[in-house]
Amino acid sequence: MTDMYDEKKVPEFSLPPYPHEEHGSEDGLGRAKNPVKYLQSIEQRARERQVAYETVRLLRRDVIECYRKEGVNHYENCKEPVERYARVVLKHDVGQVHPNYKDEGKKYGY
């Protein structure tokens, strides 16, 4: 059997920002003050990005399944999955968790 008609098990919670290590100099170039923490923060940012992309992929799959299941009635019956998908997709960086940067205007390339 397929799990198409089962209740979805998606937790609704938000994660706190993770610690971020800055580069050593004021202009953001040069050696990091703590290279190990800096590499850990880069790896954590990559993991958070992948989680955000997978979340979008799962939500998109739910929308597609609903459209296929409901057929011509999808305008009325698929409103909730489409709204959840749109809420996540329209966020900056598709809802990716970011650290608390010292300079909030700086996006560090992402």
UniProtKB/TrEMBL annotation:
Span list, region Disordered: 1-33
Keyword field contains NADP: no
Subcellular location per the Swiss-Prot or TrEMBL entry: Mitochondrion inner membrane
InterPro entries: NDUFB10
Entry keyword Electron transport: yes
Extent of Basic and acidic residues compositional bias: 1-11, 19-30
Membrane topology note: Peripheral membrane protein
Keywords: Electron transport, Membrane, Mitochondrion, Mitochondrion inner membrane, Respiratory chain, Transport
UniProt GO cellular component terms: mitochondrial inner membrane
Protein's name in the database: NADH dehydrogenase [ubiquinone] 1 beta subcomplex subunit 10
Gene source species: Stephanodiscus triporus
Lineage start: Eukaryota, Sar, Stramenopiles, Ochrophyta, Bacillariophyta
